[in-house]
Amino acid sequence: MAFVVSPFRNAYRYLQRQAHESPVLFYSVVLGSIGPVLAFTVPPIRERLGYRHPEPIPTTYPIPKRPRRPVQGYEDEE
């Protein structure tokens, strides 16, 4: 039965040693691996809690419903 647990125990000891000897690299890897997990788990949780997506931002200016007047000259000319 020890042969089943041995790889996990060795991996745990290795990770513990890395966290002690080079904590910046160890915690960078830990935080970097948490990011993709959160990207897949947070949106469904937010939707279950009642979050609604906002309206899309308009990409064009609304054109008025009237005939267009032609431009005559510049505003700064007198």
Automatic annotation (TrEMBL):
- What CDD domains does the database record attribute to this sequence? NI9M
User: Where, by residue number, does the polypeptide cross the bilayer?
Assistant: 24-42
**Annotated segments matching region Disordered:** 56-78
The secretion signal range is none
Q: Source organism's superkingdom?
A: Eukaryota
Q: Which UniProt keywords apply?
A: Membrane, Transmembrane, Transmembrane helix
Protein name (record) = NADH-ubiquinone oxidoreductase 9.5 kDa subunit
